[in-house]
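Fold Annotation — chain and its backbone

Encoding — discrete vocabulary of local shapes
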Amino acid sequence: LWMPIFKIASCLIPDKKLIKHIAKFNKPIILSTGGSELEEIREAVDTIYAEDDYSLVIMACILSYPTKNQDADIMRIRKLDELFPEAIIGYSDHTEPDENMVIPSVAVSLGAKVIEKHFTLDRTMTGSGHSFSVDPPLLKKMVENIRLTEEVLGKEDLRIIETERKARENARMSIIAKCDIKKDELIKEDMLTFRRPGTGILPKFIDEIIGKLAKRDIHADEQLKWSDIG
């Protein structure tokens, strides 16, 4: 067949013979899971992988047209990702679109890599699917929101990013002399305070300074340096 990808609708999940036949073409497959038990999904996935080592997209989906917002169960995306880590997880959205197209973006934020949404040129047309489909302006809004969501998601690793460095330095505090401290004077806690910016010794090191001798005269409001401490 000429098509580059196959879509297996939710209603076809029990048809193991058809799924096996499709998988033999060794082309990417999108598998919708609406109205299916976990074991039915697992059986369909196993059938595909037994014949096809190509890309498989498993779509979280609610088999209800239109789907009420409270029934959307977008958290299924995370569960499918946990259960089938080798597959790509997507979301087939049958909710009625709102003017801001929020739900597809939420799905992307939860890990969906593919979004399916019914499309129409006119939502007022007669027919069962037009009311919960997106028209061209809503499709444009949906794509814009998804791109914004992808941009703000960023990376998971906890690190200081370059744009934080200056603000981090300005926002944090350093150890400051609260009063004049003479050379060779024993430094006590009541001689010290914390103030911005955080370009000096950080407050967490105060216990390493208390009880030490000043190597030079330190003026009130002056930021301490390690070279000042004996």
